[in-house]
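Please review the protein record below. Let me know how this chain folds according to its tokens.
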Amino acid sequence: MSPEQASGEMAVDGRSDLYSLGCVVYEMLTGEPPFTGPTTHATIARRLQGPPVPVRQLRPKVPAAVAAAVEKALAIEPSQRYATVKDFAQALAAPARRDRLSLSRSARRIAGIAGPLALVAVVLLATQLPRRRMAGAVLNPKRVAVTALSNETGDSTLSPLGLMVASWITDRLSRSGQVAVVTSATVVPAQRDAHLAGGGLDDPDRLRALALETQAGTLVSGSCYRGGNGMVEFHMEITDANSGRLLRAIGPVVSGGEPARTADGLSRSIVAAINTLVAQPRTPGT
């Protein structure tokens, strides 16, 4: 995710895709991502603070021209990046066009990666990056993604319960016919890719990441806790992914020892709330 995407700017153009591509090429060259952190929020914050470790500091044998091209693609300000992916690809391929006869065998081998990298740039743009253009668009509020509930009980044996409840809600929503529902088979990998597999949407960066992965304008998330007498309590939230605004909180709903019945009742409440919300016009960004 580019810095402008992470900061929530609506005016995102192809240079955001270029930044994402630069991240991929950086990792190909160095063996590690340009920015890391203990959490998604920390990683994005690091991205906004400055450039990554120079490529040649990690891999000195990478041609200087290739390293410079990647680092330019990763500039914080879009105006400092290449104007187009074609320009980036040409910069990556430049060393391969030079006379290599005077280079050592090792240097020729390193220089030879420039041509393939340029090809990778074009292929990635065509197959993986176009969906990121949606970052600057308004996501459809009638497309709903239901995330697996976060297990906050301290009991790992209850972890499957969160996925079961999410699947139950997804199924009932899909049968309501009022909204387009992202399948659980899509949401679960998306949660993993957005580093959300073990937790809820506890900050705007996590929400934005999952919304972009699923292209859902409405997100249903929740957590389960241990309540009184050892009962499990479910707390659910419905969030506008475009603005980050909480639309509806449901719960706590207490499981009376029959999770299936509780999940059914909870899914009915979610469906009713979603149907009411989608019938109300939403103003983008509010």
Remarks:
- The domain at 140-279 is CATH 3.40.50.10070 (Rossmann fold).
- Residues 51 and 225 are 41 Å apart (CA to CA).
